[in-house]
Amino acid sequence: MASETHPDGRRPGADAKIADVPDAWPVERSEERYQGPKCGMRTDWVVMPGANGEGTSLAARDYMVHPGAAAALALDEDGRVLLLRQYRHAVRHTMWELPAGLIDVEGEDPLLTAQRELVEEAGLRARRWHELADFFPTVGFSDERIHVYLARDLSEVPAEEIDFVREHEETDLAAEWVPLDEAVRLVMAGRLHNASTVIGVLAAQTAAATGFASLRAPADG
């Protein structure tokens, strides 16, 4: 007798074991290479399996130590996504992105970071929050972790309640409300490149297909 399957062809529980899990291989020593105001660089000498799986060996792994970040995909009642234009010097691009920022306080709930950035960069608050995505953008080079949240039921924040002073790249922020379907088209056409934006827009499209019923409640990192 054939085993029971889901309508999409998957067997019940077939993907239950497919999940990323925390893990840590032994580190013999670790050395800080650089520490700046936002991130640092470190080298770990990691105990790894030897050639052909015999014995062990040490492998030096350089990586960026990063506090993490959070982004807010603000979706208005007309199904439009808020995108902000900002210059990014490291990649020499002016990019359209979701409101986002670093987790400034160690141990801060990423949701609080996303809420703060939505106020500071867009002058908006949201009554409903759900998590769209949680990812490590460059797992071979950095421990940075980014949370992307869906923000709905938006309201404007009075200017006098915003104590954030824009400077440097943020002085020239421009905003556009883009229909979600159009934002997806821009991603697929290769016109948007910011990781949080690409992942957030595609995740929002997937969630919208089920009326947002599949979304997770916000959870800290």
Top keywords for this entry?
221 residues; alpha+beta; 4-stranded mixed beta sheet
In the predicted model, the low-confidence regions spanning at least 5 consecutive residues are: none
Beta-strand residue percentage: 35-45%
Strand order of the largest sheet: 7-4-9-8
Helix content: 10-25%
Taking all residues together, what is the mean pLDDT? Answer: 89
Question: What is the number of beta strands?
Answer: 10
What gross morphology would you assign?
Answer: globular
The biggest beta sheet, please? 4 strands, mixed
Structural class: alpha+beta
Number of helices: 3
Integer-rounded radius of gyration = 21 Å
H and E string: EEEEEEEHEEEHH
Explained architecture:
Helix content is 16%, strand content 37%. The protein has 221 residues and is α+β, with helices and mostly antiparallel strands. The chain has a four-stranded mixed sheet. Strands 1-2-3 form a three-stranded antiparallel sheet, with no helix packed on it. A three-stranded antiparallel sheet has the order 6-5-10. β1 and β2 (40-49) form a beta hairpin. α2 crosses α3. The mean pLDDT is 89.
Short recap of the structure:
Helix content is 16%, strand content 37%.
Set out the fold topology:
Blueprint: E1 27-35, E2 40-49, E3 56-65, E4 69-74, E5 80-88, E6 93-97, E7 100-102, H1 110-122, E8 124-135, E9 146-156, E10 174-179, H2 180-188, H3 195-208
Helix pairs in contact: 2-3
